[in-house]
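FAQ
Q: What does a multi-component entry look like?
A: The components come first, one per line:
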Amino acid sequence: MKQLSIMVDMDRCIGCKTCVVACRNHHNLVNHRSHMPGEIPFYIKVESQAEGTFPHLKEDFWVSPCKHCKTAPCATACESGAIRKDAQTGIVLIDKDKCTGAKKCIEKCPYNVIQFNAEKNYAHKCNMCYDRVVHGEEPVCVEICLTNALSFGEKEILKMQAQANGKEIIKAMSSQSIIYVKSSS
Amino acid sequence: MYEDGWIPTVCYQCKAECSILALVKNGIVQEVKGNPRARGKMCVKGMAGITSLYSKERLTHPMKRVGERGEGKFERISWDEAMEMMETKLRALHEKGEGHKFTYSMFPHSASDPKWRFVNAYGGFISTGLPHCDSGKIMAHLHTFGCFPNHHIAPMYFSVPKGGLMILSGRHPFGCMDDACVAKDILDAKERGAKLIVIDPIFRPEAAKADWWIPIKPGGDAAFFLGVCNYLLLNNLHNKEFCDKWVREGDMEKLLDYIADKSPEKMSAICEVPAADIIKLAKMVAEAPSACIDAFKSIMYGNAMDWGQVWSIFLVITGNLDNPGGQPLPELTPMAPVNPVPTPPNLKELGYHRTGPNREKFDHYNFILEPTWYAAQAIKEGNLKIFFATECNPALSEMGAAAWREAVSMKDDDGNYMLDFFMVSEILPSETMKWADLVLPDQTNYERWELLYMPWWYNYSHGASLCRPVVKPVGEARHTNNVIIELGKRMFPEFFAFKDDVEYYDIELGGVGMSIDKLMENGGLWSPGTVGFYKYKDKKKFDTPSGKIELDWNMYADINQQWPSPELPLEYRKEEDNFPFILINFRTIFLNNTGAWSHNNAQLRDPVSGLDSNPIMINPIDASRLDINEGDTVFLESTTGKVSSIVQLTEKIKPGCIGIIHGFGQTVGQVATMVSCFNDNELIADAGSHLDEQDLRGGEAHVSTRVTIYK
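Then the predicted structure of the entire assembly, as tokens:
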């Protein structure tokens, strides 16, 4: 199996959203002149969960890009063959030239991470910065992460690194190709 | 002049001014990121700076007021007319011998910022946000060990050893207002075995990452740490060797006398932290190789000087000064002076706080800048006639917003405004410009030169960094530094004999053997490459009058305030029955506080990448008692103001407190006004008209209050 991955260290993610903006800048998703809040596409989002009652509280933060699913429901749903899981990297890619704007992928994505360009009629999403990673660079979100909470690499190697660093893999969140880890408590 | 590629420059989405790289393609800034040759990080505000640069709401030409102040009606004028307006007004005041009635509210980007130079040459005063945010800490540390750390002088987290304690007391450093790398440095320190202790009435991401979260009653920090110091001293757990060598003779004995009755049990009753936890922290401190405190909100209350003094005492008796993991004592980068240097007027004699009927009350005001919180009062008293504001938003940032609006709109018997002239320069529409007579379009950090070498940077190890224009400016925007330099050339040519800002910086850089060209070849950075520890040992003294650490502030002996009060801030000790809740107005990474540019930045107000609401946070225990539910619209009322907003029930706030985010309230600009968000300073009493509540030693004016909440 060839699968590139991003590992999210929940001990370090603070939910700052720096990656969201850097990703938009890199992928040219934002019209700085005219976009208004609430209408700007995004390829990555921040989520969090708080538990407990005052003063016994816990809160985790993490980022949620496309999970580059093992068997991608978006690819299965796409009738125009515009979505494929790249055999060399495991990255799920949308070919916007083949996209007919049917939005089936958006309906089937369990993670709600696919965007739609209504003006040009195509779906688009995180491609794990394919153009960067095939040239040996990290995805932008990994490079600029404020707290170095993100790591990039071969999924199996990242898992080994997590174990070597005493991190527990959160299996319920890591069923696809993005890995979530935190210290064993 | 402009080139494509990754260009080293400096961010200015907040005061941290992190060194960054900007990717320019075909004359357009495409991407930005932290400069790996500095500390390598850039936060969400910085990343969104491109949106500020290219926003359709950028101010692009000078405008003058055509309606009344507050109406926000302007007409376009030329730069020539704008310069003429400023020069005429400034000359008239100066020729009357009243230069001291001019103040410039700004953030100086260096100790020799050209705007500050002009103010000094003119004989006026600058009134930065420092008195709001830092005076308690600055004055406390100056008095005690003769150093000038402000709130940006955070502990150097990268230097905290294994086992060291990082104590955040009312501080949210993950907001990156010191440097974008701070969150990473704290988490790195944790990974190598340092402990993170967060003392805070609200549970923020810092508390979520903490080894120990201690919810405290707001303003109880002085009492809490007095309890810690009491335990350390009475149990002989302090650093006796350090104190014997460096504390002024007799001060330790006086401290012991003073602190003897500040037991953990007694202090617990004030700060609402169990005595056992105060003792637990004291024992942890005694065993740790280092301990540092980073505080912010807790130095913005009316008892800031008390807390600052306790903080100083804690650092001294534990020996945590200028050591790895302790409190850094920074030095100024030795830039060359641009001679002749204008001599500033005497603040203690001519400052606008010293010329009105309250002058006697300020006899013990020791801070180094004008109290911004007295500006409204000074206008009313006729002591402030010309106001310039650059990169700041006093209409939102001044405590007592209503009183500020009243002052800048007030007219004399002849129908003339009491404040004769008000200039605002900004990059995006600001609340303040509604009251301005003249609005000037400023340049962003991507369009201008700036030499930065402030001693209060977190990233001390690079001594200077260069902000350089990487793209052409939009419209007719001019960097305000150059506007003021031109005014200087017209009015005080002897002090502005240099060609332009670049030549000014060139001369200064000669002090470290550099020039603008060399700095650009050097990646925009100059650094001695070392921070330096225990510098007082090399000097064999501290920079106090005695050369020793001075715990006893005998300059306040005549008002019996040479030792700190453990009490809560005065603003929390009044009207408790009618206003039972304490307001916590906190900051987030998504706002540069009241800075106009972050409020009109679409990415920072976007729900996915920023913050699009300012709910009223209340603990469910309190809400249940008041029959308040999630999503209810409620009123929040203080003794001086009233606002309305939506309720958010959350366990992440101490019962008895109400939480809101500081900085909102802008009513100008399409982005800022998409969601109605109120300004917390509508609730705060005007500090200048409530001098009886102020710490007139140069400490903080209150930035908080008690409130009541109802449907």
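Q: Is there any commentary attached?
A: Sometimes. For this entry: Residues 4-183 of chain A form a domain with the Alpha-Beta Plaits fold (CATH 3.30.70.20).
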